[in-house]
Amino acid sequence: MTSFYLSKPYQPPQAPQTLLLGHPWALLGGMSPEKFMKDYWHKKPLLVRGAIPAFNLAKKLNEPLGSAISPAELFKLASNEDVESRLIKSKPWSFTEGPFKQKSLPSLEARDWTLLLQGMEARHPAAAKVLSWFRFIPDARLDDLMISIAGPGGGVGPHFDSYDVFLIQMAGRRRWRISEQKDLSLNPKLPLKILQNFTVEQEWDLEPGDMLYLPPHVAHDGIALNPGCQTWSVGFRAQSYKELLQEGLWRLAESLEDIPELEKRFADPKQRATHAAEQLPEEIVRQLKRKLQDLKLDQIETFLPGIAAYLSEPKPQAFFNGTEVSLSEFIQLLTQHDLTPHPQTRLLALGKTIFCNGENMTSGQPSETQKAWRLLAGKKLLKAGKGRKIELDSTLLEAYHAGWLVFQQ
């Protein structure tokens, strides 16, 4: 009988609201978050043995820990049409998107398969708690927590990612081989993005509780060594400058609708007779330049609200199920329960302005509502009794109706 049937599930703790950034963390191999960000983040790989000390401690007590989420739970989630799941098989390589009927998934002992499930922080509280450990990195960079469960030999092939990732071993062992090679060309004959040439430079077998950090474009290949091998991947996205500027410009263009002054038509009473009628008039250029300066459209600060709104948008697969209540009912709930963002809700702050799921939630709002949103963005929590003075048009109530905020029971 394999060990995952005998071990009890690990219960990850929630990170404290105030993180000690200058102190050593076991998660980072005894480094402080400040030192990690200075020396490793976006620069070079880091292997951490015993990143989650509970696994080694339990092993010494002869009470081994297993993953916080069982294989049966993961297989059940893979059958949910709201969960982004993929099944990858090798020998030969194949790729199938979910949802999957549970009977169609391989047995844990079967070889050469991997099941990937995205956005697990929204599906299980243990995954959300693990994600909270990484809030020393800006929320704007966070993508999600993906879980990989595999049979022996399972993997997705040698590949590279365009983002930073922390690979946490949660069950079984996985062999990681990495390379900082410059050749990142892909094999055009395969259905997956697998490197055409992969030259191994370093290799490790990760045990439960170990972690490997990889910056972007480090080639890597992970092979499961045991049935039910689980790796939890915390990924941090990095949009292109093109994407950020396009989204910022698009939202900025929308905001121009609210400026009556721009409805006026261009006038050129000073235009002189010209021999170059085909040329764009200098008068148009001069007046548009002045308008850009008056509206501060030539300054980055004008673009930032649109960019912050874009970065706060939830993933396309996010699903929210709100609850309609009256203002008095909502205020009563606020006195009794803590209010938190839904796990798929994204919150970002630009100064004192808070964006939630792509919307500005503090503009024109009373001070009580603005304070509440700042707590929700910074602490991910509005404690019971903190929001009792909200008014009918409060964006807090709107967000609760939309399912973006939820009460802890």
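^ that was protein a. below is b, sequence first then the tokens
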Amino acid sequence: MPNATYRGAIFRGPGSVDVIDLPYPTCGDDDVIVRNLMAGVCGSDVSAYKHGGDDHMIWQDHEFGHEAVSEIVEMGRNVKGLSLGDHVFVNQGKALRDMKRMATVGSFSEYIRIPQCEVGESVLMIDNDIPVKSAVLVEPFVIGTRGALNLDPGPDKTAIVFGAGIIGLSAAIMLKWFGCPKVMIVDISDFRLANAASFGLVTCNPAKEDLRARAFAEFGSQQTFFGERCQAQLYLDAIGMKVAIDNFAMLAGRGASLAVVGVHHEPVAMDLMAVCYSNWKIKGCGETAIEEALPHILAMMKSGRFDLSALVTHEYRVEQIAEALVMGANAGEAQKVCIAF
């Protein structure tokens, strides 16, 4: 018999979260109940805790969290295509039939009821043999995969990624997975760069070395209308800061592509003559559906080529959610912070 209650984290507003007992949900004929195994702390969760959640659809007085790997523990009699014990990704806004609940699915709670559950829509299957500490990274890897695919990567192209947070690392790893023979990641956190190097990524800390010189040394250079430029063809901004755009403009040669995955909250100036004459291709974060990105991600995870579990640097109990949200902002010590159930 299930417990009468479960522990759930409730977002109360900036600097305030509660962990309370909630009534264990009833599983209807068309529903499933999942037990969350591990949930990632997203940058949007951190931002909500610091500044407020409305901009991220993290609503006050709601259960929150949206990056869990979960296990099926109850099924209604009409649900098809699932078995007890299956691992799944709860598919954000589609799971609760409300796109405004994308970030308040309840991944920071022990259990979630998924109404009118449909495999491939409400929940996405994850192979049980993928380690939980890897599977918990599915959601950030969806973002990284979108950005990587938007650059049309391949074995004849090299890449530079600005930002070694979890999104930057996921994009860089997927660029390698899609065939790019060399990928550089640029950041000022030596801790995160050390993680990046363990995945076979070239690293550069521009606070300590000349980025332009390092990029030329790694990728070669070319003469352009605007002077000497790097021969790397693909660039990805995973930080959403002006410095990333400035560095792209400094490095990019003719025909280079930039994917802007980091969210910029302020306008950034760009020389449109350089865009015109250099024929730069500037794109957004991509629009690959999560259902389309997932097979690429699961194939990469199952390959064993990358030890993704090393990216989970901190685990907390749900009762420690406030500590986890604080640590999630610590680029000097944390890569991916998770709640483990």
